[in-house]
Design brief:
14% helix, electron transfer activity, Phytocyanin-like, alpha+beta, three-stranded antiparallel sheet, Early nodulin-like protein 1-like, Immunoglobulin-like, Cupredoxin, 103 residues, Phytocyanin_dom
Length: 103
């Protein structure tokens, strides 16, 4: 379950922000920030089946220099553009994460 920070600390949630219990739950992170997860099975959270995930924001794209740079011998070499390397929203299988935490 995805819960508020307060509910995370108490290991209780009457109204989770997200709930899945089919054993193959997928949660898509669509914003940066902290996400608080607790197990919805009674007693599991108090025994440590909880986690906080911090999703970082994509760094802003660098500005192009205003003055043209000097020509080099590598002018025909391929370049990497930051837009091509942008991170897409992350999808995590929650049951896999809790399975890893239970060891």
């Amino acid at each position: 379950m995805v819960v508020s920070e307060e509910e995370y600390e108490k290991c209780k949630s009457a109204r989770p922000l997200f709930f899945g219990n089919n054993g193959d739950t997928v949660f898509k992170f669509e914003r940066p920030g902290l996400f608080y997860f607790i197990s919805g099975v009674s007693g599991h959270c108090t025994r440590g089946q909880k986690m906080i995930i911090k999703v970082l924001d994509i760094e802003p794209e660098e500005q192009e220099p205003t003055a043209p740079s000097p020509q080099s011998s590598n002018e025909n070499a391929p370049t990497i553009h930051s837009k091509a390397a942008q991170i897409t929203p992350i999808t995590i299988t929650i049951s896999t994460l809790f399975a890893l935490l239970s060891f």
